[in-house]
Design a protein that fits this description.
CATH topology of the largest domain: Rossmann fold
CATH architecture of the largest domain: 3-Layer(aba) Sandwich
Strand content: 15-25%
Helix content: 40-55%
Structural class: alpha/beta
Distance between the termini: 64 Å
Shape: elongated
Radius of gyration: 27 Å
Strand order of the largest sheet: 2-3-4-1-5
Largest sheet: 5 strands, parallel
Length: 558
């Protein structure tokens, strides 16, 4: 079997090295047959976006066309009518993957340098072109020398595509990979509005009413809200993981994985591999495997089935957003973790202010389009049936809170904290919780206004998730005259025990101490008749606990 191209995303490098390659070349045929001029392909990371864009670059590029044609020997595209387009167009290929900066000024400096290097390395012939006038040449030289005004940079795609058309006599192909990477960074570092204004102008100049454009393709993880960035770009058609078109072109299909396993001599593990790495439903029907995990497993089969994809990124955006999720989102995530399929609405467009506010539909949309959830069945009213796709992602969700909080939690039943709670040793539980929070909550900035209660709530749900087989666990459910934070009771009706927990965060305006606040939480359990539903199920030995906290200090009343 040929070497597996793990970590490689340059099509020419893979083909020239003779590495194992799974043929995705009919993406070219799909693009040429489809009537759209420009495509946006939102896909999760490590699902082959950059490799596919690299393949498009080498296929279309008029430079070194004859040599590039050899890269496609034996691939399906050679037998397609689309082969007539091979080597016929100049190509502008920009990857924004590494353009993540701490300020707009840093981005401007890095981006102008990036464009200057692009001209020197890929379009040096333009600097000596007889077809261009002195103004065009001055523009290019200004980019190379980094002296061009920033407003001129915004028109780079439009101006360069015009010059390429003049020089080569062919309208170019424009490819933009990971367009949303600098947008994510800009929101985190506080210059989002400046970045959005630039990206809107930059992309509009290249793709809106550009008479020098043949085709365009853009990839990213998220579909940033249209009103923010793609306003007026009616020639851009989006094909996300919810669309049937192009559903087989990113990620690996069952047939492709079967062939890979056969070639690697690992066919006997087919079912286990599917359980771990399959499960994504693209377009509602096409079952897709995560290619990064499959390739890593095949490369090291003796290491067994284990997470690969979830370990390739720090998941910073996910880690930042989940603690902010509203109570409705927390309930959905908890149900998903229990293996349920949840029908809910999502936002296909990502509005960052809603995302950071923890809005249910936006957070679930982030998890879906980022590859942490999949939509098994969906209708036409933005209501989707979501589920966790496979064991790798399930394990990630189960470990997510452990990753936030440190290494202290492994299995719920093995910790002093949970043993004390289940045995209803209230004083021991209170002491263990206080010690755990003191030593393990340093990851979070738990002092931030509005965040702490959700963190404690999510932490307890993460612990209790391990008990789902034997206990009914309820979060934020309407009971009595309000919503209890968490209550749970055994499925075994002969067991009289039950538990109910109410959380309170001490705010600046609260005059009392933590002990009185915990007692207020305990009083709320009784005053609002939270116990009624638990008693209705026949449980009478009920531990009621109010939990009050301020930063890393915790006090319980019970």
């Amino acid at each position: 079997m040929n070497n597996l191209p793990i970590g490689k995303s340059d099509f020419r490098q893979i083909r020239q090295a003779g590495d194992y390659y799974i043929d995705k070349s009919l993406l070219i045929e799909d693009i040429m047959k489809n009537g759209a001029q420009t495509y946006l392909f939102p896909r999760p990371r490590r699902f082959g976006k950059t490799l596919n864009m690299s393949m498009l670059k080498y296929f279309y590029d008029v430079q070194e066309a004859e040599e590039n044609a050899k890269l496609f020997d034996g691939l399906a595209i050679q037998k397609s009518d689309a082969w007539q387009h091979q080597g016929k167009y100049p190509v502008i290929f920009l990857s924004f993957k590494e353009l993540k900066c701490a300020s707009m000024e840093d981005f401007k400096a890095k981006f102008i340098s990036f464009l200057g290097n692009l001209i020197r390395r890929q379009f040096k012939a333009l600097l000596n072109s007889d077809a261009l006038d002195e103004f065009d040449l001055d523009y290019l030289k200004g980019i190379v020398r980094r002296t061009t005004d920033w407003l001129e940079v915004e028109r780079f795609l439009a101006d360069l595509s015009y010059m390429l058309n003049i020089h080569y006599g062919a309208k170019p192909i424009i490819l933009i990979d990971e367009y949303d990477a600098p947008i994510h960074a800009s929101y985190s570092y506080g210059y989002f509005d400046e970045m959005i204004a630039f990206m809107r102008n930059f992309l509009s100049a290249g793709f809106k009413d550009n008479e020098n454009l043949t085709k365009g393709a853009i990839t990213g993880i998220l579909r940033v809200a249209k009103e923010n960035i793609f306003s007026g770009l009616n020639n851009i058609i989006t094909y996300s993981i919810l669309n049937a078109n192009f559903s087989e072109r990113f990620g690996l299909t069952q047939a492709e994985v079967d062939q890979l396993l056969d070639d690697a001599g690992s066919a006997e593990n087919r079912d286990a591999v599917a359980e771990w790495y399959n499960g994504y439903s693209f377009g509602g029907t096409t079952q897709i495997y995560n290619p990064w995990s499959i390739l890593n497993y095949v490369a090291h089969p003796k290491d067994g089935l284990k997470p690969h994809w979830v370990n390739t990124s720090s998941n910073d955006l996910i880690k930042e957003i989940l603690p902010k999720a509203d109570k409705e989102t927390q309930d959905v995530l908890f149900d998903l973790l229990k293996g349920k399929k949840v029908t809910t609405s999502i936002e296909e467009f990502t509005v960052f202010k809603d995302l950071y506010a923890g809005k249910n539909a936006t957070v679930l949309g982030l998890l879906l389009f980022s590859g942490y959830l999949t939509a098994e069945v969906f209708d036409h009213f933005q209501s989707y049936k979501l589920r966790i796709p496979n064991k790798e992602i399930e394990l990630m969700f189960r470990r997510m809170l452990e990753g936030y909080l440190g290494n202290g939690v492994t299995q719920a039943g093995d910790t002093d904290l949970m043993k004390a709670l289940l045995e209803q040793r209230a004083n021991t539980f209170a002491d263990a919780l206080a010690q755990y929070v003191k030593t393990s909550f340093s990851y979070f900035d738990i002092g931030k206004e509005g965040n702490s209660e959700k963190i404690y709530h999510a932490f307890m749900l993460g612990l209790l998730a391990h008990l789902d087989k034997d206990y009914h666990i309820r979060s934020n459910r309407e009971v009595g005259y309000g919503r209890a934070d968490i209550y749970f009771y055994p499925k075994d009706t002969s067991n009289p025990k039950a538990w109910i927990l109410e959380f309170k965060k001490k705010d600046k305006d609260d005059k009392g101490d933590l002990q009185s606040l915990a007692e207020d939480a305990l009083k709320q359990i009784h005053d609002r008749d939270y116990l009624d539903e638990i008693k209705a199920h026949g449980h009478t030995d009920i531990l009621c606990m109010g939990v009050a906290f301020e930063g890393k200090e915790v006090v319980c009343a019970f």
